[in-house]
């Protein structure tokens, strides 16, 4: 319109509506022109009503009463122009001209009613346009510089010693992951020098901490990472997974790398891990209602990892020790072993890593962690929660049956409910029996025969058909079928139909003792 106007622009430089800068004087009720380049402070009110979709802009000189009539208004649908995460701010430019723009004060409100007017007496004055520096200020600056030089000479030794103590490993390529990196110094202070141990396992030690800046409680896990090969990809995946958001996933807040250690920082869950509630003698027994809720929560979180995010996330370490109790929602934690790959692509071969009893048998042969290997571990988790027993007992007897073998034996004998945790007491037996059978189906040695997590969630929620799998169809030698010394060449096929599930097995010749020993070691 001209070089002194107010306009409403939506996603472009062409205004929806505009008007010359002016305001309605309350005394005379007349329209008074305003100069936007006079150097005098102005007040602006911008209001949007989501119901009527009306956007109004009112301007006046600072100190003048607010005009009753807006300068410009228009009906605009901001829902199509504003993202879910939106930043509100200011932008000033004059092209090739030189100018200064100052925002002396502003307020923002979401909801009904008007935002209260600013108290102009509390705003800072408009900065002076004089460029000459006062003589007194020059003297003060000179004295300050001299004082700083004196202090620096005495503080250098202290700073060098402190830097060595909290030195971190950081390379140029990590700059892009900066927002996800947390300083070692802050983690050292948060954990009182890594003294507050709350857990330990084969992959690292977990400490409780409180971040001083935010006061947030965190769980800090140290993971040994001696090899530099693949570290960049690993840190990249950690940074990516810190963007995961789901009510049944513990938030991964960031990482730190120092002296061969990778330190992961999570939200802290005050009630601890599920295995402490399942196996500790000093904890009250969990009811089936609580266990069933935990199972469905973990299934929902795992489905999000497999299908609900921009990439496929394979967790690789699903077990009760990595399920945390958050009162209303159980949360799956510990992404220190997780791996990513794009939807539709194939996972890469990695080292066989995980926890014995939860490792799918094909991992020892292919080395590929997939969503199907996660389903296998989830099946072991289902049996673990329902039976109150760990999937495997680590002792010198290699012939001792695993938990899946024992549940299958009870099922074949027509007494599958005998496998439940005796501390459960009265419960919804139909639901518990469903979980036991689903745990066996997820633990199938043939990855092609396991359901997807979407099917698992549908079955648990009652929206999917419950598979009927006669135990006699699982083969006469159930130890070979569900144990950890089974043959990889064993043929097994599951047909998920609308009413029933048929399972057929055809065992092949057994492996040699050397092959079986290698499988157990894996």
Automatic annotation (TrEMBL):
Q: Which terms are listed as keywords in the entry?
A: ATP-binding, Kinase, Lectin, Membrane, Nucleotide-binding, Serine/threonine-protein kinase, Signal, Transferase, Transmembrane, Transmembrane helix
Topology relative to the lipid bilayer, per the entry, is:
Single-pass type I membrane protein
Query: Where does this protein hold ATP?
Result: 222
Which reaction(s) does the protein catalyse, per the Swiss-Prot or TrEMBL entry? L-threonyl-[protein] + ATP = O-phospho-L-threonyl-[protein] + ADP + H(+); L-seryl-[protein] + ATP = O-phospho-L-seryl-[protein] + ADP + H(+)
User: What are the subcellular locations of this protein?
Assistant: Membrane
Q: Which Gene3D superfamilies match?
A: 2.60.120.200, Phosphorylase Kinase, domain 1 (3.30.200.20), Transferase(Phosphotransferase) domain 1 (1.10.510.10)
- Sequence segments annotated as region (Disordered): 502-522
User: What's its EC?
Assistant: 2.7.11.1
Q: Which InterPro entries match?
A: ConA-like_dom_sf, Kinase-like_dom_sf, L-type_Lectin-RKs, Legume_lectin_dom, Prot_kinase_dom, Protein_kinase_ATP_BS
Here the segments flagged for biased composition (Polar residues) are: 502-511
All copies of the Protein kinase domain together span 192-466
The UniProt transmembrane annotation reads 136-160
Which cellular component terms (GO) are annotated to the entry?
membrane
Against Pfam families, the record matches this protein to:
Lectin_legB (PF00139), Pkinase (PF00069)
Q: GO molecular-function annotation terms?
A: ATP binding; carbohydrate binding; protein serine/threonine kinase activity
* Family affiliation: In the C-terminal section; belongs to the protein kinase superfamily. Ser/Thr protein kinase family. In the N-terminal section; belongs to the leguminous lectin family.
Q: What is the name of the protein in this document?
A: non-specific serine/threonine protein kinase
């Amino acid at each position: 319109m001209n070089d002194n106007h107010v306009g409403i622009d939506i996603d472009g430089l062409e205004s929806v509506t505009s008007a010359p800068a002016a305001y309605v004087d309350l005394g005379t009720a007349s329209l008074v022109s305003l100069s936007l380049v006079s150097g005098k402070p102005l007040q602006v009110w911008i209001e949007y009503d989501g119901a009527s979709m009306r956007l109004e802009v009112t301007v006046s000189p600072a100190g003048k009463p607010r005009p009753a009539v807006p300068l410009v208004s228009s009906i605009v649908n901001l829902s199509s122009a504003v993202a879910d995460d939106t930043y509100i701010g200011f932008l000033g430019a004059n092209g090739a001209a030189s100018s200064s723009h100052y925002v002396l004060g502003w307020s923002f409100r979401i909801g009904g009613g008007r935002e209260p007017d600013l108290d102009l007496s509390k705003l800072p004055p408009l900065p002076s346009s004089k460029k000459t520096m006062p003589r007194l200020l020059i003297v003060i600056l000179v004295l300050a510089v001299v004082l700083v030089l004196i202090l620096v000479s005495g503080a250098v030794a202290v700073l060098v010693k402190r830097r060595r103590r909290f030195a971190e490993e950081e390379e140029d390529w990590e700059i892009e992951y900066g927002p996800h990196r947390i300083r070692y110094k802050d983690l050292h202070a948060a954990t009182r020098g890594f003294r507050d141990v709350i857990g330990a396992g084969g992959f690292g030690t977990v400490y409780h901490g409180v971040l001083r800046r935010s006061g947030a409680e965190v769980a800090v896990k140290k993971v040994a990472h001696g090899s530099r090969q693949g570290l960049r990809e690993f840190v990249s995946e950690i940074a990516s997974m810190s963007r995961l958001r789901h009510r049944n996933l513990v938030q991964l807040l960031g990482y730190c790398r120092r002296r061969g250690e990778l330190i992961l920082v999570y939200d802290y869950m005050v009630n601890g891990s599920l295995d402490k509630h399942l196996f500790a003698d000093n904890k009250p027994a969990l009811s089936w209602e609580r266990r069933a809720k935990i199972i469905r929560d973990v299934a929902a979180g795992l489905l999000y990892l497999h299908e609900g995010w921009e990439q496929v996330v394979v967790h690789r370490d699903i077990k009760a020790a990595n399920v945390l109790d958050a009162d209303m929602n159980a949360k799956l934690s510990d992404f220190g072993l997780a791996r990513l790959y794009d939807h539709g692509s194939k996972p890469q071969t990695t080292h066989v890593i995980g926890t014995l009893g939860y490792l799918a048998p094909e991992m020892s042969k292919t080395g590929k962690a997939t969503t199907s290997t996660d389903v296998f571990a989830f099946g072991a988790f289902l049996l673990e929660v329902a039976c109150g027993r760990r999937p495997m007992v680590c002792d010198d007897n290699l012939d001792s049956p695993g938990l899946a073998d024992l549940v299958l034996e009870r099922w074949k004998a027509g007494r599958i409910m005998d496998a439940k945790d005796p501390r459960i007491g009265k419960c919804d037996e139909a639901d518990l029996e469903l979980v036991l059978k689903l745990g066996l189906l997820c633990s199938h040695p043939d990855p092609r025969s396991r359901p997807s997590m979407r099917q698992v969630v549908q079955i648990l929620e009652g929206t999917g058909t419950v598979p009927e799998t006669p135990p006699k169809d699982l083969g006469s030698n159930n130890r070979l079928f569900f144990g950890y010394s089974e043959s990889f060449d064993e043929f097994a096929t599951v047909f998920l139909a609308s009413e029933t599930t048929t399972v057929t097995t055809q065992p092949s010749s057994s492996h040699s003792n050397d092959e079986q020993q290698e499988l157990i070691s894996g």
